[in-house]
Write the structure tokens for this entry.
Amino acid sequence: MNLKDFDALSFDCYGTLINWEAGILAELVPWASGSGIPEQELLAAYSLHQAAIEEETPTMLYPDVLAESLVRVGAQFDIAVSDEQAHEFGQSVPRWPAFPDSADALAKLATRFKLIILSNIDRNSFAASNKKLGVTFDAILTAQDIGSYKPSLNNFHALMAKSGELGIDPARHLHVAQSLFHDHVPAKQMGLPTVWINRRKNQDGWGATPPPPANVTPDWEFGSMQEFADAAID
């Protein structure tokens, strides 16, 4: 395969385009101040609770998933969580920063490919993040639209249905994401080729995502969106 063989790129957003680990830690670290819990331990706890909530209640809106995740992290570490703190964490997505290379890379890719978002998010939260990405996507699919969260295959069936509506040959559709757990494992189960934007390269652990439940080998790996865009366009 060659990157220029594709007509459409679907993207995970949070972790790939938006720096959700920085955004999450900006909320968790002050809340856990004085606890002595390492940042990576906070992220790991958050990742497991969030994934469990999304599986248990697939139609729960993402702000409520975030709020409940903080409540469960608090229970795990015996740190009090007020209703106000849970609510504020749930509303934190608009404060999460984009990676510095995301907007320019997307603008470059948009000159050649159709761009689709497939994200574990609600429509309002994504709209706030989209302003930081500076590009008009050809389609946006959220967990709110689909009624389930990745890694559910429902989300990837919805993605391929939308891709078909856009006139994209399934063989010319490429999925781009950071999370092996949320994206690469189910995408590969669907037969989709994938690009791994390995934002955690040279870091230990899995950060804000659970470890993948199965071995998976993406077709390409890049350390940033800019590296990927340069390879796909130049």
About this structure: The first helix runs from residue 20 to 31.
